[in-house]
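Field guide to reading this record: the first block holds the primary sequence, the second block holds the structure written as C-alpha cells, and the final block holds curator observations. Each block starts with its own label. This record concerns histidine kinase, catalogued under organism Bordetella trematum.

BLOCK 1 — SEQUENCE
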Amino acid sequence: MATATYLPLGSNVQVPRLSIELDTEDWQWLASNRELRVGIFSPDFAPFQFTYSGAFAGINADYLKIISYNLGLTPVIVLYPDRESALQALRDGAVDIVDDVDGAPLGGAGLLASEPYIVNPAVLVTRRGAATLPQDFGGLRVAVNPRKLLAPGQRQTGSWVNLATPLLGLSAVAYGQADVYLGDPLSVAYYMAAGIFEDIELQKRDQLGSIGGMYTLRHSSGRLRHILNQAIASIPDVWRQNVLYRWGLPTASFRAVSRLRLTEREKRWLQRQHEVRVVTLNVFPPFSMYNRNASRPSGMSIDLLQRLSDLTGLRFVYQGVDTAAEMQQALVSGAADMGAGMFWSAARDASLDFSTPYLTSAVVLVGRRGDPALSADATYAGRRIATVTGSSSLAQLRDHYPLAKVVPVASPNEALLAVLDGRADMAIQSQLAANFYLRNYFRDELEILAAFNIAPARLAFAFGRQQDELQSIINKALALLPADEQIYVLNRWRAQAPPQINTWYAYRTEIYLLIGLAFASALIFLAWIFYLRLQIRKRRRAERALNDQLAFMHVLLDGIPYPVFVRDLEGRMVLCNRSYLQAFNVAEAEVLGRKITESPSAEQQAEQAAQVHQQYLDVMHGSQGAVFQDMEIDIDGRKRYLYHWMLPYTDSLGHVAGMIGGWTDLTERTELLHQLQEAKEDADAASRAKTTFLATMSHEIRTPMNAIIGMLELVLRREPDPVADRDALQVAASLRQVAENLINVFQGLARQRNLTLALHREQSDEQDVEIDAARLKQVLANLISNALKFTEHGGVTLTLRQRRLDSGLAQIELMVDDTGPGINAADRRKLFEPFTQI
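BLOCK 2 — STRUCTURE
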C-alpha cells in the first residue's frame, strides 16, 4: 500500500451557516459518524490544493471546511502520492471520499461522484499573438496536466506531453517548449495574476466542456453522497465568490484580517523585543534591493515585511549583505534575527529554520540572446550552468543532470554576469527574478531559453536556530494574510517602472579590488627593475644552495642502513630513504604522496595500517612529543620485530609541519632471544625432573637403608645368638642409648648443613624398657632426616620423656622439633596416605 500522510486542515476561510435540507435519517447518520476521512493526492494543484506548508490549504480546503462544519463532521485529511493510490484507499475503506481536484473521470467501477462544488471550464493557453489553433490540434505540441484525463478521441492528433502541474505547463508554452496548454482558467488566472508570465493569453473553447472539483465515493456510500450533494447545493453564490475572492486579485485597499492568536510565551517575547534585525541581499531584484539614493531596501519581500509589521507590531531594522552565504552566516552567528527572503534548500535547512513559503516560482535557464532553444528532455551535457552556492537548484542540477558543468556563484546577479562575460553558458534563475532582470536590465543581451524541469523554488523568511518565537509569530501572520494580498504585492512589482539599483552595493567589492590592484600595480611598476635583478641573483644562489642541500640530504638518508621516512600533517609520505623502499619491496612512486593506508603493502594488513596511521596523527596533533616503542608487523607474510620511533618536526614559525619516523629491525636478535629462552626453559624442566627423581629415589631408598643400618648395629653390639634373634622384639633396651646412637648417626649431616642437632632428656628415673628398638630407630630416623632436610637455619632437637606407671609399665614421649617452615595444612592431610610424598 502506498505511503499515506495525515495533514491538518489549513483553511482560514470564514464559514457561513448553511440551510441544508436533510431528513431525520440523514441527521441521525451524521450523529453516528462524526469523522469524514478525506483522501487527497499529490502533486499540488494551485490554487485548489497546497500541502507544502504541512497542512491542506487551497480552494478545495475552503469548500471542505464550509461543508464539514455545517454537517458537524471533523475532517481527517490523508495525503497519497498519486490519484490511483487515493482511489484504491477509497475502495479499501481507508477513506470515505476522495477530493478529485479537477474532476477527472472515475477510476473504475464501483465508484460514485458527487455534484461538483465548483465548475471550472477548460481553456487553452497559447503565446500572445499565436495563430488560430486547429480544431483537432493537428501538428501541435499540447501540454496537459495528467489530472485532466481527456477522452481518447481528443488525443488522436498532435503531440501530447503530460506535465505534473499547471506551472510547468504554462512555462512550457511561455518558453516555446509547447504550442498550447490545456488547463482550467482558475489555475491559469492564479499564475497570470502573479505576474509570472507576460507573453501568454487564454483561448476559451466551448467544445472542451466544463470540469470541476467534486468528491468521489464508494458505490455503497449513497447516503453520504446525498448529504454532500445537499450541502453543496446549499452554498450561496456570494460565499462561492468569497472563496474565489480569497485566491484572486484584491481591491484598492487590503481587507482587515483577524488578530493574531499568540501563546503566552510569544506574547512575552513580543513585550521584550519589538525590534527585529533583518538581513537582506543588497542586489536581489525584485525581492530586495537598494535603490539609488535610498536609505532602506525595497522589493517584494520588503513590502511583505511591512505588512507583517502592521499585523505584529514588530519594527524591522535592515542590514544589507552581498551574498546568500553572508546572509546565512549572519543568521547562524546571531548577527541578525531574520533573513528577508531566501530560497529554501536542504543545505540551508541544515543550519537555518524557514517560515512558510510566501512565494513559489518556476526555475528557468537564462542564456545569451540568440542561443538555440532547448528541448524539454535536454541533458545539458557539457553545458556550463551558473547557479548560487547552497541553493536547491545546485543539488537538483547535480542529481538530475550530472553531465552538466556547474559554475558556482555567490548571488543571482553574479550568475547573470557570468553568462554575459562568457564564464557560463546559462544561469539558473527563479522565473520572477529572470523576468524582472530581462525586462528592466538585460533585454537586449539575455533571454529565457527554457523552463528547468526541477522542483519549483520556494521563497521564505529565514531564521537562526534560536528564533523559535519569532518564526512562529511570522508564520501565524503569514497565515492571516489572504492570498490575494500576496498576489497584489507581486503584481505591484511587475507593473512598477524599472528601479535604479544602487550599483555601489552591486559592485563595491569589484571597485575596492580595482582600486587596490591599481595602487599595487603602480608600486610594483616603480620597483620592478631593481627588484627583478636582485631577485634573480638571490634566486640563483638559493637554487644552488638548495640543490646542494637536497643532494646531501638524499645521500645522507640513503646511506642510513635503517628505514627513515617523513610524512605531512595528513600522514602522506613526503620523503623516504632506500632502506624503507627495500623493506616493503616497493618503488618510490608507489608511496610518495600517499598515506600508509593507501600504500600497496597495506592491502593485506589494512587494520594494522589504520592503527599505525592513527599513531602518526596522534604524534603530530598530540602533545607527547617523540614516541619510541616496540612493534610487531607482517611484511610479505613474515613477522618482523621493530624498534619504532616517531617525532614531530616544526616549521620556522614553530608550528608542527609533519613527522619524522623510522625503525630498527630487531627480528634476528629477537628470534635468538626466543631460542635462548626456549633452551633455558628446556634446561629448567630437565633440572626439575632430575630433582624430582632424586628426591623420590632418596625417599624410597632411605626407609630400607635405615632398617639395614639398625640391623648392622645390632650385629656389631652382640654375639650371634639365634635364640636372641628370634626374641629380639622383647629384649629390654635403654631409650637414652637408642636416642644417643641415632643422634650420632645424623650429627655429620647436621654439620654439613650448618645446623645443630641435640638430644634433650626429661626423666627422673631412667630404666630399660621392652621395645622393638629397630622399629623405633627407623621412625626417629625418618623424622630427624626430614627435619634436617627441610630446615635452612637453626637446628633440630630430639626430646625424650619417660614416666613410670603402675603394674610395670612406662609412658614414653618422643618429640622432634625443628626451626624449618613446617608442613602446610593441605599437605598434612596427605601424611598417612599410601604412596604419597610430601
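BLOCK 3 — OBSERVATIONS
Residues 348 and 478 are 21 Å apart (CA to CA).
The longest strand covers residues 638-650.
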